[in-house]
Amino acid sequence: MTTYEYYRIVEEVFEKYMGRPTVFVGKKITKWDEVAKVTGKALFTADFLKLYKDVVWVHSVRTKYSHALIKNIDVSEAVNVPGVIRVLTARDIPGVNDVGYVIPDQPLLAERKVRYIGDIVALIVSKDPYSASEAAEKVFVDYEPLPVYIDPEEIVDLMTIEEKAHSLIHDERGSDVVAHVKIRVGDFSKALREASVVVENKYRTPMQEHAYIEPEAALAVPEPDGGITVIASTQCPFDARRAIARVLGLTQNKVRVIAPFIGGGFGGKEDVVNEVGAKAALATYYTGRPAIALHTREESFIGHSKRHPMTAWYRHAAKKTGEIVLVEANILLDTGAYASLGPFVAWRATVHSVGPYKVPNARIDTLAVYTNTVYSGAFRGFGNPQVHFAVERQMDILAEELSMDPVELRLKNILRAGDRTIHGQLLSVGHGVGLEDCVRRVIELSNWYEKRRLYSNQNEPVKRGIGIALMWHGNSIGVEGADYSSVSIIINRDGTITFRTGLTEMGQGSLWGLVLIAAEILGVPPSYFRVEIPDTSSAPDSGPTVASRSTVMGGNATVVAAYKLKKRLSELAGSFLNCDPSDVVIEAPKVYCREDPSKEVMWREVVEEALWLGVPLQEYGFYRATRAEWHEETGTGAPYITYTFGAVVSEVAVDTETGQVWVERAYTAYDIGRVINPIGAEFHAVGGYVQGMGYALMEEVVHSKEGCVYNNNLSTYYIPTIRDAPQIAVAFIESGYRQGPLGAKGLGEPSIVAVAPSIANAVSHATGVQFTEIPLTPHRVFIELEKRKRRL
Amino acid sequence: MAEYRDYVVKLTVNGVTYIVSVKPYERLIDVLRYKLGLTSVKEGCGRGECGACVVILNGKVVPSCLTLAIRTNGAEVQTLEGLAPEGKLHAVQKALIEVHGIQCGFCIPGFAIAIKHLVDNNSNPTDEEIKEALDGYLCRCGSYSMLIEAARLTAKYVSEGRRYFDLRECLGE
User: Fold this and answer.
1) Looking at CA atoms only, how far is residue A326 from chain B in angstroms?
2) CB distance from A80 to chain B under 8 Å?
3) Tens digit of pLDDT for each residue in B29-50?
4) pLDDT of amino acid A480
5) Which CATH class is domain A310-478+630-791?
6) Cβ–Cβ gap A31/B145 under 8 Å
7) Closest residue in chain A to residue B95, using alpha carbons only
8) DSSP of A120-165
């Protein structure tokens, strides 16, 4: 394998900073975007509308059936509605009619058939947003309805994992199974013989909606050379550019995507932007005018990817001492009408499917299948919250069977430095495997043992419970794709710095983390930096802003760029300070010699001198993760560069008369290697918890049997409010990851993974009922409590 | 669609009086965002469910997406842009920065307006009163605990008579 210079630089910087105090990294410093956001000056995509004239509006006419063949589309009346400029159908697409992310299975505009209630049959381009709804009523489509499937168990048998006979949703593919990912490790029958306890259950998790407060939006603007600029609320400007260029039949250098501030993403603003961006661009292509595609909240609910609902059968076998000997599982993920990121979600779910434990034998089969529901794709956690719900419930049920404390059972089985994962990947000390520290921290913070005892015998109608769940989460994208990122650091003539990357800011604060890294290495305070809005025409391709990769991958690219600049400028300053370059200290506004601080020069003078002498003041940092390894038949290899570990404890109160559950307190501890931006880290620990609590207690997108979404707005789809959010204690363990920037790992996604199982475990502790489905709505909890009463 | 005639509406926004012509179906949010360029007012749902578009209208907090522009003739409106004089920040803005309560920031204009309105009417709110005032405002990034802290801090500043702050002071420069 080629060893690139950037690997060496990242490890050298890691060694230099590990265990040493820092000036900017790890400090709470006001983020670059806070003032703009608090004064209302920050521009989100739709806000740019005020800067353009003669903008046309793009309205999507969606199907009335969720599974049907299209016989004919008649737009002749719609085009004559006053205010309507054009009506576009599949035939008008100049390039390729596809916006699929992983596989090309998703037309931008439906032509031959519709597969879910969000499919678009025509676009109405009009002079204002008002005339379009009238025209939409005048688009006449002849449909031939087909059977509608909303449950993946209608497509595949959970126990045999065989595809059932049905009317194919993707007949062109010949099968409605999109992906099948496996693990085959060890000797199952021998393991079963060794076991003294076997626990098996069926689990279900719901379809969750991202419900970011900013609905999808894209504004396309024509360029004089026939190119198109698209301002879009996207996590993946480069992926959006590729998709839009393909739809329009343009080369990628003719499409420019700008990603301004994003009003929340959580994975939802990945592939849908292919569609929304292409819709706006198509209207601009045909009208030569700026065009805006803006989803209403209802369209957002039915028109973008969701968290895959999971149905899973799990079997755990353990020895009397508590050691796990076998995990078996059949996992069905409902990817809805289109694959979206489903194949990758299925893969990530499988990789993590045994939890953060030493497991000697495993047999896992994960299938992602099509149905006629709204399609599922990326959502913070990416398949991992689903499998963790099952695994961590299994662990509690196993503990009860063994009459062990849930913490003790987990401590017997957790991964520690020197262990191998289920895939055979060695977790060396350099990975920073602080899972045990995380467990011990939350146990201490929550006063676990005493509360566990205290809550075990209660006779009041409101019962309290405490539950724990552990997690692991592979960083970045592993074998899902080319795993690289990049940044540019540009020192300006006045000494200020322009920081440029194609990674996006959606609230997570990781770009500020990159600035802190650059500031730390260069010795130039963050106040000198200006972060530029990601723009595919000025920023280097940085890969997508997904998979908890910004801090790790973007961070490593930043380390490389800052290291090289620092080296060059130290050599330059050393030459005229008459001082060894390794002795040069940059502490902007000053630069001096460590041995003799009287030898001093201003930072700006060094910059000016560099210009005169021809020392480049710009640097491009690139980092590509070491290649992931995955053997498809066995599920072995080294799927991810490393893993983030964590433990979450939740305390709940359950009203046994109504089934209502409240989370009263929560405690989280994550080993993220090193805290780079503590503001962002805390956002994740707290925000991930709140979102995970919604998943555990109240959130579920519900389809009618015809495939319509019942709860397509924020008054019927509940997300946590200020009254639901509990007190959350946040702790971080910093074990240090050798190949991370100053030792850091990702936290965006990991922060949601263990939340729902910790809450479900607490509710089961409070009530004595083993819950196997979420959300734990009052209705579900009440019914289960009633069933138990009848059994007793 | 049927043609509707334009109506003239005179309203005062952030202390400036505007005369705008509106269709009877146009909403206050459309006028503020696209006719007056006040894009701090965010549209999250268009149904009064998320709170991102609230403004202070004649002393009351209202969702501008549920307010028809034609009904605002003669009204006084305040948006986030008008909370503080140029170069200054209102106490609530300083508090939001100080507690680092801003993630994606899309809900922040609504929360800031709601906190400002609460504190104007009650300079010493209890936590329960804060939750009551902010109930119904949605923050999907989950910054609620920081937003409560920001409300407490705003109340403290306002009750000390410190309503406006120099921008530089807020950045710790």
Assistant:
1) 37
2) no
3) 999 999 999 999 999 999 999 9
4) 84
5) alpha beta
6) no
7) A38
8) EEEEEEESSTTHHHHHHTT-EEEEEE------GGGTB-TTT-PBPP
The position carrying tokens 């595809």 is A163
> Is A687 within 8 Å of chain B by CB?
yes
Q: Provide the 3-class DSSP secondary structure of residue A459.
A: coil
pLDDT tens for B50-80 read 999 999 999 999 999 999 999 999 999 999 9
- B80 CB near a chain A CB, below 8 Å? yes
Architecture of domain A5-30+484-624: 2-Layer Sandwich (3.30)
Shortest Cα–Cα distance, B38 to chain A (Å): 8
Contact B34 A50 (CB under 8 A): yes
User: In whole angstroms, what is the distance from residue A241 CA to residue A230 CA?
Assistant: 8
pLDDT reported for residue A189: 87
A37 in contact with B, Cβ within 8 Å:
yes
Nearest residue on chain B to A677, alpha-carbon basis: B100
pLDDT in tens, A247-293: 999 999 999 999 999 999 999 999 999 999 999 999 999 999 999 99
Q: Do B135 and A721 touch (CB under 8 A)?
A: yes
Q: Which of residues 12 through 41 in chain B touch A, CB cutoff 8 A?
A: 23, 25, 33-34, 37-40
Report pLDDT for B2: 63
Residues of chain A with pLDDT under 70: 1-2
Max Cα distance, chain B (Å): 57
Alpha carbon A268 to its chain's center: 8
Q: Which domains does chain B have, with CATH numbers?
A: 7-82 (3.10.20.30), 88-170 (1.10.150.120)
Q: How many residues does chain B have?
A: 173
User: Which of B33, B102, B130 is the best residue to mutate to test the A interface, defined by the most A CB atoms within 10 Å of its own CB?
Assistant: B102
A45-146+216-294 architecture in CATH?
Alpha-Beta Complex (3.90)
Phi, psi torsion values for B98, nearest 5 degrees: -65, -40
Query: What is the predicted pLDDT for the residue at B169?
Result: 77
Q: What angle, rounded to 10 degrees, do the helices at B108-121 and B144-159 form?
A: 40
Report yes or no: A526 at the B interface, CB cutoff 8 Å.
Answer: no
Picking from A552, A554, A556, A549, the residue whose alpha carbon sits closest to that of residue A531 is A554
Angle separating helix axes A237-248 and A272-287, nearest 10 degrees: 50
**What is the reported pLDDT for A345?**
98
Report the residue of B3, B98, B103, B127 to disrupt the A interface, i.e. the one with the largest count of A CBs within 10 Å.
Answer: B103
Contacting residues of B for A713, CB less than 8 Å apart: 45, 47, 49
How many Cα neighbours within 13 Å face the side chain of A515?
26
Same fold, A5-30+484-624 and A45-146+216-294: no
Helices A510-522 and A555-577: angle between axes, nearest 10 degrees: 20
Note the pLDDT of residue B172.
61
- Buried b / exposed e over A252-288, threshold 16 CB at 10 Å, is eebbbbbbbbbbbbbbbbbbbbbbbbbbbbbbbbbbe
**A211 neighbourhood in chain B, CB within 8 Å:** 138, 140
* Residue ranges of domains in chain A: 5-30+484-624, 45-146+216-294, 310-478+630-791
